[in-house]
């Protein structure tokens, strides 16, 4: 493919792409042996594929732009924890802008006609953005684990720590993606581009093992371990709260059932404030040094019973709300982990098997395309999963769509 100095590179790419589409269509029509319906069905399939992929790209762009705009515009969302969400949205937006359009063109034409250099750049951008997106999911899991297991982490979490995590994510993703640009690729790379018109990431066995392990398998194992520990810690915490509430209730009933011993006339009244699970009451020291409810100016046993009933109802409602929060958190973790595995596991399994098996493994082009776009579709789901469960993000999206005045008027009503 020779290009003169006066020609426009963009027009050359468009002309080459159109010629590739025409040649593919003519080749498909020649192989139909006079069947007039196959070219029509091929055109329908091409239009349908273009529409579906266009909707996926547009949805990914809009979703991640909304996440970034919501955090930038809403002061309530401008906290350290959302720095990771912003960086994740940037990575997913880069997938939609740099990777998906060329992938859609490659999918529609079924041929790569842009040369090995642009193929190198496209595959490296693919590895960079997708690896960064996956590593952000790992960083979010680490941040949530620290927040659950360390009581003081939320107070000590500062912008320097989170920004350091973000920088390490992008540096590590860049280190994984630039390997083929510096020659870490298989010997059949240029032949595959020029002869087979196929653009694949380097099929060198060493690079594939390194890239798949560092980009997916190790982060996957860490994410599963962290979310399992988060779930276990949350379940232990809710069980501990329920158990402590039950013990507090039993002790209060025992104290209310015991008769008050005779008080000394000169005994001072000691008032103590109980915990949030106990009633505040005044008590006087007894002969053996313990405390008992005061009858003079204090709370009588008759007054304790309705207060106990009211307090028990409040605690039961609070425990129900806490249980709902725990179930919602567990559901969110299950959706996050499940979506990540469903989207990326098929692609990385085939990506690792393809260079290892060689000719023994045969994967159809349709299956490889479905697995590739399924992985990219995770960038479409991320802004939905990580923000739809947050009322603050939902409110910010409503303000962006309907305007701040419309949202405020609805609140007043």
UniProtKB/TrEMBL annotation:
It is a multi-pass membrane protein. Residues 63-386 form the G-protein coupled receptors family 1 profile domain. Keywords: Cell membrane, Disulfide bond, G-protein coupled receptor, Membrane, Receptor, Transducer, Transmembrane, Transmembrane helix. GO terms for biological process: adenylate cyclase-activating adrenergic receptor signaling pathway; positive regulation of MAPK cascade. It holds the Pfam family 7tm_1. Its main location: membrane. The chain crosses the membrane at residues 40-73, 80-102, 122-142, 162-185, 205-231, 333-354, 366-389. SUPFAM superfamilies: Family A G protein-coupled receptor-like. GO terms for cellular component: plasma membrane. The keyword Signal does not apply. Residues 242-268 are annotated as: Disordered. InterPro entries: GPCR_Rhodpsn, GPCR_Rhodpsn_7TM. The keyword Zinc does not apply. GO terms for molecular function: G protein-coupled serotonin receptor activity. It is found in: Cell membrane. CDD domains: 7tmA_5-HT1A_invertebrates. Belongs to the G-protein coupled receptor 1 family. This is 5-hydroxytryptamine receptor. It comes from Amphibalanus amphitrite (Striped barnacle).
């Amino acid at each position: 493919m020779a290009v003169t100095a006066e020609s426009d590179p963009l027009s050359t790419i468009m002309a080459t792409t159109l010629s590739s589409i025409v040649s593919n269509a003519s080749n498909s029509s020649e192989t139909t042996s006079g069947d007039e319906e196959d070219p029509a069905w091929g055109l329908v399939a091409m239009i349908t594929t273009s529409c579906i992929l266009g909707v996926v790209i547009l949805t990914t762009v809009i979703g991640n732009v909304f996440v970034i705009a919501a955090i930038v515009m809403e002061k309530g969302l401008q906290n350290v924890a959302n720095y990771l969400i912003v960086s994740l949205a940037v990575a997913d937006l880069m997938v939609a802008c740099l990777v998906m359009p060329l992938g859609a063109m490659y999918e529609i034409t079924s041929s790569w006609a842009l040369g090995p250099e642009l193929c190198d750049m496209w595959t490296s951008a693919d590895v960079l953005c997708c690896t960064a997106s996956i590593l952000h999911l790992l960083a979010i899991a680490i941040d949530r684990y620290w927040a659950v297991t360390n009581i003081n982490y939320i107070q000590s979490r500062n912008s320097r720590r989170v920004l350091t995590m973000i920088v390490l994510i992008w540096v590590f993703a860049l280190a994984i993606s630039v390997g083929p640009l510096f020659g870490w690729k298989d010997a059949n790379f240029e032949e595959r581009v020029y002869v087979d018109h196929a653009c694949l990431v380097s099929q060198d066995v060493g690079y594939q093992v390194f890239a798949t392990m560092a980009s997916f398998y190790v982060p996957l194992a860490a994410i599963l371990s962290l979310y399992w520990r988060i779930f276990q810690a949350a379940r232990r915490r809710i069980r501990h709260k329920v158990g402590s509430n039950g013990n507090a209730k039993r002790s209060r009933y025992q104290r209310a059932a015991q008769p008050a011993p005779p008080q000394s006339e000169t005994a001072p009244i000691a008032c103590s404030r109980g915990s949030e699970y106990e009633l505040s009451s005044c008590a006087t020291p007894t002969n053996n040094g313990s405390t008992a409810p005061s009858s003079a100016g204090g709370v009588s046993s008759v007054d304790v019973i309705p207060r106990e009933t009211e307090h028990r109802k409040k605690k039961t409602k609070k425990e129900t709300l806490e249980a709902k929060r725990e179930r919602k958190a567990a559901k969110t973790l299950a959706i996050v982990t499940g979506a990540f595995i469903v989207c990326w596991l098929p692609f990385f399994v085939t990506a690792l098997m393809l260079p290892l098996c060689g000719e023994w493994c045969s994967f159809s082009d349709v299956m490889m395309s479905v697995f590739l776009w399924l992985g990219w579709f995770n960038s479409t789901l991320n802004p939905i999963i990580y923000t739809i469960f947050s009322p603050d993000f939902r409110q910010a999206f409503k303000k962006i769509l309907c305007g701040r005045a419309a949202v405020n008027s609805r609140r007043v009503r």
